[in-house]
Amino acid sequence: MESLVQFTQKQLEQSTKASESQCEKVAERIVEEVNRICRESDRIQRTGEVGKWQKNLSEHRIRQCLNYYQLGSKRGRVELQSTLSAIVYRYISLRQGISSYQAKVNLIEDFLQGFYAETLNAFRREADVLPTYSPRSLLELSEYMAFTERYAKRRITFSRGRSQQLVILRAQTFSQQQPLETSVDITAAEGSFNRDDKEWEGVAMQQLRTYMAAQGDDHELTDRNLRETVAQELIRYLEEKQQLDCIDYFVLRLRDCATSEIESVLGLTPRQRDYLQQRFKYHLIRFALSNNWELVHQWLGATLEQNLGLTPSQWEHLLAEISEPQQKLLELKQLGWEHKEIAKELTLTSSQTDKLWGKLLELAWDLRNKPLT
């Protein structure tokens, strides 16, 4: 155990700016957790390779901790929030009559506030620290966030071998109860800071939105805001089409979840997941070529001013392929005419004009995504 602590401490010292004493304490807690798992796991004990398991589990926890450390207190918080939100999204239910996407996002944040409080208490208990312990440095905060992710993904086993992740069980219970009032701020500075525990645990979750908006330079911020707007509009579109399972799939894809994880979270077989993926793709294309085309093309950097994202040769090919009414429609769009004015000029109905424009956008879409030869 002593050599494993030294190994863990050395890894932390080499990869962080934390003090030697901080690295030592965190290393001791990591190794103690690993040893407890190995002692209590019959499966690990039966392998006869307990030492190998201890090192592998320690290395896994080191990587998790350092990942959050490298992200920093702000981006690490956003990453943790995103990871847990993706897992519980489909298990948090709004009150009857409420269908707002933003209302569901706010409800998920309320749930996670209570879950963070539970996790902090679990960390204090399992790490054998003082009941008033709170992270006081970036390394300690990273240790806590890594623990929170593992704690959330713990599987609780029921009768007949059925199991479920802990955070999902908490989310299902939360949806049947009043929102929790406890809030935890998991923000920490790079060094020590002199906050008492009540202040650390009492900062509202609203700060998360502020931190998310504060990341990156102006260009990155604009791109992220545009991406979030596109995502929200797509979710509203899917809600209107009553494609709720497509929303679940989309949210998990936004979080870069692996295919196997998507199947696990949504409880799908590979064939069912593939069918859902194809249905989502269909609605995604319909969304991108409908009334939302300007928003989507702005995000893609494929506006009319940018020739719909086509190269000069592709643009010439498009102009040669489209019909005369479509050419006139394109010219009027480039001149900034309103939709109703264009329909009147072309002596078409509004829906006919939409259909004509949609076919033009679809042709541009195919050209833009055509492999280069």
Task: Record the SSE blueprint.
Layout (H helix, E strand, L loop, with lengths): L1 H14 L4 H21 L1 H6 L2 H39 L12 H26 L11 H16 L1 E3 L5 E3 H10 L21 H6 L4 H8 L3 H23 L3 H11 L4 H8 L3 H19 L4 H8 L11 H10 L2 H11 L4 H7 L4 H19 L5
Antiparallel strand pairs: 1-2
Helix pairs in contact: 1-2, 1-4, 2-4, 4-5, 4-6, 5-6, 10-14, 11-13, 16-18
Give an account of the 3D structure.
This protein has 373 residues and is mainly α. It folds into three domains: 213 residues, no CATH class; 73 residues; 72 residues. Helix content is 70%, strand content 2%. A two-stranded antiparallel sheet has the order 1-2. Strand 1 and strand 2 form a beta hairpin. The protein is elongated and about 80 Å long. The N and C termini lie far apart (59 Å).
